[in-house]
Amino acid sequence: MTDELVEAPRGDLALPLDLPPLVVEITQMWLETRRSPNTREAYRRAIRLWFSYCERTGLDPLEMSVRHAELYARWMVESADRTPTPKTIAQRMSAVSAWYKYLIKNDAARFNPFAEADRPTIPRRHSETTALTEDEAHTLVQAADKDHGRERLRTAALIRMLVQVGLRITEAVGAEIDDLGFSRGYRTLRLTLKGGKPHFRKLPVETVYALDQYLEERASRAGVELRDLHGPLFATGSGRPLPREKAWELVQRIARQAGITSKVTPHTLRHTWASIAEARGAKPREIQEALGHESFETTLIYLHSRDQLEKDPSQLVASAVE
Fold this sequence. Notes:
Blueprint: H1 21-32, H2 37-57, H3 66-79, H4 86-105, H5 134-145, H6 152-165, H7 169-174, E1 180-183, E2 186-192, E3 198-202, H8 205-222, H9 244-257, H10 266-279, H11 284-291, H12 296-304, H13 314-320
Helix pairs in contact: 2-4, 5-6, 6-8, 6-10, 11-12
């Protein structure tokens, strides 16, 4: 599932339906069993959309059939201002299916209409994210280094962290200064993976230089020594963690300034890191370990998408039949 933002207060689901109190309580419990705030918010959005469909059609979600679940997939396409991708539809249906399974487990429902419903088929190594080329990545980093304004050093450090280390955006904006460290002569960043597993990344010299410049300036503004600076690694002017949506906007702005016309998101930069790492000789298993992927298949999705445009043979055909 996709990502986070602000976690709703306990019990505040803002549901459009008048559901039995037991179902509302179990739904909240179900959301709280998701360890990741990203997953919780994605599931919350998915279940709200399902409830909206039930309300608009006048159907009781506890009395649904498989046919209703499949009609819901069609409704998502026909009612949206922007047609969702097959992957998005499949993810939303998967989230609602997980909700039904939890209700059944807790004796609050009898049947899961999504368990047998047809869902969009997603190729095993499908990815809608296309990595930047090495030249584009270089141009992006240079554009960040030349950025202007009060937070230009933060911009440069964040872009380098995403491009040169391949962090998830949530890992970057969720990191604390105290997560920085040293090990075996390397500067490191401590991350926490799913299940609370600690994960350490080695920071390249170029990334460290940009990060140190940013943190030194921040310490100077705060009137403290660098060693006494604490808090979020990437902070707003008020010292709060940089919001994820602001980081997204920053990445897209720098991409425009770099003259990159393709869609660029923080996830694009993670794919780009994997792409360049493999092209420069890193082994797939090394890339998997660095990115913290539990499944090697996830890493292969990143690598499979690397040259999908360059390997498209359409130009060969067009040249033959011009």
